[in-house]
Specification:
There is one protein chain. By secondary structure, the chain is mainly beta. It has one domain: Porin (Beta Barrel). It contains three helices and 17 strands. The chain has a 16-stranded antiparallel beta barrel with strand order 1-2-3-4-5-6-7-8-9-10-11-12-14-15-16-17.
């Protein structure tokens, strides 16, 4: 019997980096717009793209090598003084369209309104851009909540955001999102809701809390609440997140931790980045099960355009009979 699927019993950025955007590609910040040499009221259109190539060997498959292109994204970001838009497609995914949203803001960028398809404001690990995240994968907790239980992730929705820099850089984001689709019947559930609040009380510390509620207009079927904190000390970044709530299988809790250190090397623009992380997930209802993962590795970075990642993970994933090792090498580039 897999440890994860145990039988049923009776009665989870450095200081200069802004918080991740709702899209995978971060739109230009207010500071970047102000510092630009282009006419403020002129339309700015920027194409972007990225490709990840990965080779891995998994103990569960007798270390058979696997070569894949987990991401091949192309997109356009457009910006005016009060309007931003982003459209992103992933050529390596069965679901071609990833992000397609419009963002309208007031003159001081304190109020924003988003409409379209984008990431719901839940779970800090999920909101982080995969380029900025020092891990190759978001981990088993994020995968289990989003892929297996439809908690968070990319959705069609409408979201409002308030940003008050003079109040510890307070940011409040909340919205209503399209419910999950039943793969068997093709019927969509009623709308979900998500809310996130974050502050930076001091330059080196960011803290936040978020929640996700499914079928919110029909009494809320499943829910999750998360609290997170990130410590920035020079090149060192340490983050932790705690999640709990209720899924279809019952109550759950999860914990995620991640630490990385970015160290510039002699050549201009190059840096090395050791990284370690751990996470665990516990199902606490009639179905009692657990999963966990430990990862460590070294990333080699060049400016914002290239990175090479060598990482090893030992994890107990859904369906595993026992924990297993996986070794991965990934080369990534973007423009």
């Amino acid at each position: 019997m897999p440890v994860w699927a145990a039988e049923q019993k009776p009665a989870a950025a450095d200081a200069s980096k802004s918080e991740a955007s709702v899209g995978e590609e971060t739109l230009p910040s207010d500071e970047q717009k102000a510092a630009g040499t282009e006419e403020k009221k002129g339309l700015r259109v920027r194409p972007f793209g990225r490709v990840y190539a990965r080779v891995s060997a998994d103990e569960r498959d007798a270390y058979e090598r696997s070569l894949s292109i987990p991401s091949a994204r192309v997109g356009l970001a457009a910006s005016l003084s009060h309007v931003d838009a982003e459209v992103t497609a992933d050529l390596s995914s069965k679901t071609l369209l990833k992000d397609a949203f419009l963002r309208v803001s007031d003159g001081k960028k304190r109020l924003r309104l988003y409409g379209g398809q984008f990431k719901a404001p839940f779970l800090a690990r999920e909101l982080e851009s995969s380029w900025q995240l020092p891990l190759m994968r978001r981990g088993l907790v994020a995968d289990y909540l989003e892929d297996e239980n439809d908690i968070g992730g990319r959705r069609l929705g409408l979201m409002g955001e308030v940003s008050l820099k003079h109040l510890w850089k307070l940011k409040v984001s909340g919205g209503v999102f399209q419910g999950a689709k039943d793969e068997d019947t093709g019927v969509r559930a009623s709308e979900d809701a998500a809310l996130r609040v974050s502050v930076r009380p001091v330059k080196f510390l960011s803290v936040g809390a978020s929640t996700y509620l499914t079928q919110v207009f029909q009494g809320t079927r499943n829910h999750a609440v998360a609290a997170d904190a990130t410590l920035h000390l020079g090149g060192l970044e340490v983050s932790g997140e705690y999640v709990n709530g209720r899924l279809a299988v019952g109550p759950f809790s999860a914990q995620l931790g991640l630490a990385s250190y970015t160290l510039p090397v002699g050549l201009d623009g190059w840096a090395v980045q050791p990284v370690v992380g751990a996470e665990s997930l516990q199902l606490q209802g009639p179905l009692k099960a657990r999963g966990h993962g430990f990862v460590g590795g070294l990333n080699v970075l060049y400016s914002e355009h290239f990175k090479a990642q060598l990482q090893a993970e030992r994890a107990l994933r859904p369906g595993d009979e026992a924990p297993g090792f996986e070794y991965s090498l990934q080369l990534a580039t973007r423009f």
